[in-house]
Automatic annotation (TrEMBL):
InterPro entries: NPH3/RPT2-like, SKP1/BTB/POZ_sf. This is BTB/POZ DOMAIN-CONTAINING PROTEIN DOT3. Pathway: Protein modification; protein ubiquitination. SUPFAM superfamilies: POZ domain. It comes from Salix viminalis.
């Protein structure tokens, strides 16, 4: 965990704010929530955001971006943004795997940008956890 980039995130009204020793420089709106985050950790992991020409705005956040129709909504983006700056370890489970898998594809979080990026993590979880459970369940139902 790196305290250089961030130490925590908290919600105030409909805004998620990363508290940090370094000022946040990007405001991203997903559904009704706004996330103020560090631009460079997301740029280094997200091909989609990296391709955008983010122009500074006249605001306190530096750059602003609105992600329309974001797969998984604001909850998936919250997990991705926290994991991108290592606030919390990534916790994949049956409730969030599908939204995170879709969101990682949308953001183009591939291995080409970062080893162990989110596409490969969700793919591994689906392959080695979910499909194994489905196979075992199928095998057990054949025995019965």
């Amino acid at each position: 965990m790196s305290s250089t980039f961030t130490t925590a995130s908290r919600k105030k009204d409909n805004s998620w704010v990363v508290t940090s020793q370094i000022a946040t420089d990007l405001s991203i709106q997903v559904q009704d929530d706004t996330f103020t985050v560090h631009k460079y950790p997301l740029l280094s992991k997200c091909g989609y955001i990296g391709r955008l020409e983010l122009q500074p705005t006249i605001s306190t956040f530096g750059c602003e971006l609105k992600l329309e129709n974001f797969p998984g909504g604001s909850e998936a983006f919250k997990i991705i943004s926290e994991n991108s700056v290592m606030v919390f370890p990534l916790e994949l489970n049956s409730s969030n795997i599908a939204p995170l898998r879709c969101a990682s594809e949308f953001l183009e979080m591939s291995e080409e940008l970062d080893d162990g990026n989110l596409i490969s993590k969700t793919e591994a979880f689906l392959t080695f956890v979910v499909l194994v459970v489905v196979e075992r369940h199928h095998h057990c139902s054949q025995i019965m």
